[in-house]
Amino acid sequence: MEMSLGSRLKHAWNAFTNNDFASNYRDAGIGYSYRPDRPRLTRGNEQSIVNSVYNRIALDAAAIDIQHVRLDKNNRFISVIDSKLNNCLTLEPNIDQTARPFIQDVVMSMFDEGSVAIVPTDTTFNPEMTGAYDIEAMRTGKILEWYPKHIKVRVYNERTGLKEDILVPKSAVAIIENPLYSVINAPNSTMQRLIRKLNLLDVIDEQSGSGKLDLIIQLPYVIKTEARRQQAENRRKDIENQLAGSKYGIAYTDGTEHITQLNRAVGNNLMSQIEYLTSMLYSQLGITQSILDGTANEEAMLNYYNRTIEPILSVIVDEMKRKFLTKTARSQLQSILFFRSPFKLVPVNGIAEISDKFTRNEIMTSNEMRQVIGMKPSDDPKADELRNKNLSAPREEPSGNPNDVTEKEMKETNTKSKEEIQNE
Question: Domain residues of the chain, as ranges?
Answer without folding.
Answer: 34-179+297-340, 213-262, 346-393
